[in-house]
Design a protein that fits this description.
Length: 232
């Protein structure tokens, strides 16, 4: 009787292990089906956010700060009188301006953030504030409350569609029925929010009139994904 070498024993053991693994894989459930349902809806944007800023330049940093503070106080006083508009001061920055490694002046900027549900209301306010501030950006979106309302309806619709799809799969594959193994519901985190930017416009061009704005729509989406087990 021939003795087997250690190498041949190793090869034989490896082959047996592979065979065992293949048989184990064959035991995976063949009656499980994974699928996904997407439901979305275009929703009218009912919220508008605007960012305006005061930008000043002065050789004296103390005078620069005073100019910015005065302009922002003026803007905040007017903005807070507007009905239905949320007002918040934004970032404040100052930095030196160099000429051949020597500070020649100082520049400063502070932002003012506005939020409203009425486009016409905010448009009129922005037109007034452009007397001393510059528009940096405008953004339209769906408010959180409206988004939740739409997501609840879409979730109900998506879950109903998930059950319909499961029944169709079970019927098409001649199954006696199905059981839901796993299921998850995801809502859209990102919305399409049209923006209107005006940094390239001159101060005089902006101050002539209030900006023309149109809210547009955003897409709200719900995704239901999961797995069903077919009954045999």
């Amino acid at each position: 009787m021939l003795k087997k070498s250690p190498l041949s024993i190793f090869i034989l053991a490896f082959a047996l292990l592979q065979t065992f693994t293949l048989h184990a894989d064959d035991k995976r459930p063949m009656n499980q089906v994974n699928f996904q349902i997407d439901v979305d809806q275009e929703v009218e944007n009912d919220q508008i956010n605007a960012t305006l800023s005061i930008n000043e330049n002065n050789k004296n940093p103390a005078r620069l700060a005073d100019e910015i503070n005065q302009a922002m106080s003026w803007a905040m006083k007017i903005a807070k009188k507007a009905d239905g508009v949320k007002v918040k001061s934004g970032s404040y920055q100052t930095y030196p301006v160099y000429d051949k490694k020597r500070i020649t002046s100082w520049r400063g900027r502070q932002d003012l953030q506005l939020e409203a549900s009425e486009v016409s209301q905010l448009s009129e306010l922005v037109g007034t504030l452009q007397e001393r501030l510059q528009v940096q950006s405008m953004r339209f979106s769906v408010s959180r409350q409206r988004q939740r309302e739409v997501q609840e309806k879409l979730t109900e619709k998506a879950l109903s569609a998930f059950k319909d799809r499961a029944q169709l799969i079970a019927k098409s594959l001649d199954s006696r029925g199905y059981d839901i193994e796993t299921i998850s519901v995801q809502t859209s985190g990102q919305q399409h929010m049209p923006r209107m930017r005006m940094e390239s416009m001159s101060y005089d061009a902006q101050a002539k009139s209030a900006p023309a704005m149109e809210a547009g729509t955003s897409k709200v989406q719900v995704i239901v994904s999961g797995a069903i087990k077919l009954r045999r």
